[in-house]
Amino acid sequence: MDIPTFRARFPFFANVNPLMVAVVIQEATNQVDASVFRQNTDAAIGYLAAHLLAIDPQGSDTRLVAKDGSTMYGKMYENLRLAMTVGIAVSGGGDGCGRGGGWPG
User: Fold this and answer.
1) Could you please report the per-residue DSSP string of the chain?
2) pLDDT tens profile 63-95
3) Which of 44, 56, 95, 103 is most exposed, with minimal Cβ within 10 Å?
4) Is the pTM of this model over 0.85?
5) Burial of 29 (0-12, 13-18, 19+ CB in 10 A)
6) Is the CB of residue 44 less than 8 Å from the CB of residue 32?
């Protein structure tokens, strides 16, 4: 994701120093695994970069942080991350795990 694309998607950060935006986009790029996010990689980078800018003390004019430290951008990133990853599932039927019967035999 480049700066113009980021600013078009997240206009709230239009007045943030472009060097800072570039550094944060690079930081987000380093943390987002394209093999996990696939076609949503740019969206994940954008949400994570926006979250990082929103919580950064240097971005005090753009701080959109809730009392619990979360941001709407961070929540969007987490929702996307959860949608793109698969949890562990246990199959087996019978008295399987979680029903008090131990592992299926």
Assistant:
1) --HHHHHHH-GGGTTS-HHHHHHHHHHHHHH--HHHHGGGHHHHHHHHHHHHHHH-GGGGGG----TTS--HHHHHHHHHHHHHS--------SS-TTTTS-S--
2) 566 666 677 777 777 877 777 776 655 555 555
3) 103
4) no
5) middle
6) yes
